[in-house]
Amino acid sequence: MFRWVDHIDPDGKKVYTSAFPWFYEHVCKNISVNLNNGSLLYALCMIAFMWSIVWWMDKRKSILKYKTLITYS
Asked: Is residue 20 part of a domain?
């Protein structure tokens, strides 16, 4: 995933972030004073995001196939 510098901490080190933590910190966390509401919103958004990927793949009839090699001793 992509990441970028979010800010510089008091010690002068760069603090990086990516899309999902940024979305939680700047959108979901600020919804309400109660952090449980922001966490619920984040969880619902992640489920909707994953579901939309699967829906899009199903619409295109895309199937991911993989082979696994399982050996038992």
From this structure: yes
Domain that holds residue 29: 4-59
pLDDT truncated to tens, each residue of the chain (73 aa)?
Answer: 688 888 888 998 988 888 888 899 889 988 888 989 999 999 999 999 999 999 998 898 888 777 776 666 6
Q: What's the 3-state SS for the chain?
A: CCCEEEEECCCCCEEEECHHHHHHHHHHCCCCCCHHHHHHHHHHHHHHHHHHHHHHHHHCCCCCCCCCCCCCC
Any domain includes 66? no
Is the full-model pTM beyond 0.85? no
